[in-house]
Amino acid sequence: MVLDYGPDAALLARYRRDYEASKRGGGAGGGGGIGWLQLQDGVNVVRILPPYGEGDQYSIVVGQHFGLGSERRAGVFCPRLTLGFDGRTPLVDWSCPVCEYTDLVRGSARRGRELSRARDLGAVTRWVCQVLDRDGDDVDAPLLWSFGLPVYGQLLGFLTGTYPDLLDADEGQDIAVRKVRQDRSTTYTLSPEGKPSPVSDAALERLVDLKSYIKSRIPRPEELGRVLDGRGEGEASAGP
């Protein structure tokens, strides 16, 4: 097996459109696309949006494989670890060749470059929700925010503590997110603004069905297979 890690052209085109939209700060458009939140160093003010549909959760658990593409910067959603709103059931019923490859390498007790590469390709657990960038060009454009366990833990603390209505469309609040880079690490500190900040009807009308949107962007085995076989071209991003 050749290990070139270049995603196939169709998959790349889809993620490239999303990535370009995120750089423009674009939200959901007529084609159902939505950009990604790009947090700047320092303080960013965001408003986490309520769920799209009744019975939905505000966020969804995803697995993401990073380090793909010719420059090893691209990422895709993992079929195995991207889950439904119950947090247990995969959104799709097909396998993940990238996970199978990393499991095989780790299980064979190999050492050196291949083992290091398998570790780099291992899926990372993230959470994705929809937010408004209060400092953005279009304050009514929903964006996707992908974050890790430290941010998720802070949000859980707010929701189960002093701010149970944090995400409510009328009574919820903006959140100040302080991003600080230090050496090779980046920390995020969240602080609710302390007063209600209603979400406009225009923003609510532009929400996307988060579950369907993420599901439509989970690569099939043949697409990810081309990543491992080195038959793809270029690269793209599944998030910031």
Structure description:
Helices cover 28% and strands 25% of the residues. The protein is of the alpha+beta class and 240 residues long. It has one domain (9-229): Alpha-Beta Complex (Replication Fork Single-Stranded DNA Binding Protein). Strands 1, 2, 3, 4, 5, 6, 7 and 8 form an eight-stranded mixed sheet that branches. Strand 7 (173-182) and strand 8 (185-196) form a beta hairpin. Helix 2 packs antiparallel against helix 3. The model is unreliable at 1-12, 21-31 and 231-240 (pLDDT under 50).
Brief overview, please?
The protein has 240 residues and is an alpha+beta fold. It has seven helices and eight strands, in the order αββββααββαββααα.
Mean pLDDT: 81
Shape: globular
CATH class: Alpha Beta
Order of helices and strands: HEEEEHHEEHEEHHH
Overall radius of gyration = 18 Å
Strand content: 25-35%
How many strands, which pairing sense, and closed or not: the largest β-sheet?
8 strands, mixed
The percent range for helix content is 25-40%
CATH architecture assignment name: Alpha-Beta Complex
Query: How many angstroms does the end-to-end distance come to?
Result: 30 Å
Low-confidence stretches: 1-12, 21-31, 231-240
| SSE class | alpha+beta
Number of strands: 8
What would CATH call the homologous superfamily? Answer: Replication Fork Single-Stranded Dna Binding Protein
CATH domain fold name: Replication Fork Single-Stranded DNA Binding Protein
Please indicate the count of domains.
Answer: 1
